[in-house]
Design a protein that fits this description.
There is one protein chain. This protein is mostly beta strands and 208 residues long. It folds into 2 domains: 2-100, Immunoglobulin-like; 103-180, Immunoglobulins (Immunoglobulin-like, Sandwich). The chain has 1 helix and 16 strands. The strands form 4 sheets. The protein has a 5-stranded antiparallel β-sheet with strand order 1-2-7-6-5, with no helix packed on it. A 4-stranded antiparallel β-sheet has the order 9-10-14-13, with no helix packed on it. A 4-stranded antiparallel β-sheet has the order 12-11-15-16, with no helix packed on it. The protein is elongated, with a radius of gyration of 30 Å.
Length: 208
């Protein structure tokens, strides 16, 4: 996903008139926009902290921030900021931030688990094994967090990749079959059947 301001820069506005800024959002069909935020960084003064003008959910075609003179609209793949009664105090650097949801899937290849987000803004990764953080006895997580090299043998249990950002998180789980547990269960069932057969034989002998 990419965002581009369409106005020619720098933008010159006469005080008392309307400021109109438009940005184009280029995304693919799998990317779903969550929120759109317009901010302004003051041009002068000791406090250069960015001011949030408006934060709008993508499902709303138009919204306003704390200032009634500020309106933000979203139409197809363009978002527009309109500011009535522009003044010299409104000078500065304007920017727009588009955030989108996080989704996750896991690709499995032998003892290597790869977690790839389908979409997301600034995602962070974490890995769990049986609902607990992965330890060195289980495996090693890559520096970027999206890959887990499993060192435990055999490869067994539930491995979960969690991907999150400031909007929330999503997770994907891979369940590796535990062969040793399967053999133990089979053996227990066989022993139980044999025990029942022996008991049944003894009971039949006593009745006879």
């Amino acid at each position: 996903m990419s965002v581009h301001i369409l106005n020619e820069q720098p933008v010159h506005v006469i005080p008392g008139s309307k400021l109109v800024l438009t940005a184009r959002i280029e995304k693919n069909l799998r990317e779903e926009i969550s929120t759109i935020t317009w901010t302004r960084e003051p041009e002068t003064g000791h406090d250069r902290t960015k001011v949030t003008l408006a934060t709008c959910p993508a499902k709303s075609p138009k919204c306003s921030g704390g200032n009634p003179d500020v309106q933000v609209s979203l139409k197809q793949q363009e978002t527009t900021l309109e500011m009535n009664r522009y003044s010299t105090d409104d000078r500065g650097e304007y920017s727009v931030t588009v955030t989108h949801h996080v989704s996750v899937s896991i690709n499995v290849s032998y003892s290597l688990l790869v977690c790839r987000e389908a979409w997301g803004t600034d995602p962070s990764f974490s890995w769990l094994h049986e609902r607990a953080a992965v330890t060195q006895q289980v495996g090693k997580v890559s520096k970027d967090g999206h890959m887990l090299i499993v060192t435990m043998t055999p490869l067994c249990g539930h491995f979960t990749c969690m991907v999150g950002n400031k909007l929330g998180y999503s997770s994907g789980t891979y369940a590796a079959p535990c062969e040793s547990e399967g053999r133990g269960t089979t053996a227990a069932v066989v022993c139980l059947v044999l025990l029942l057969m022996v008991c049944g034989g003894v009971l039949a002998f006593l009745l006879w």
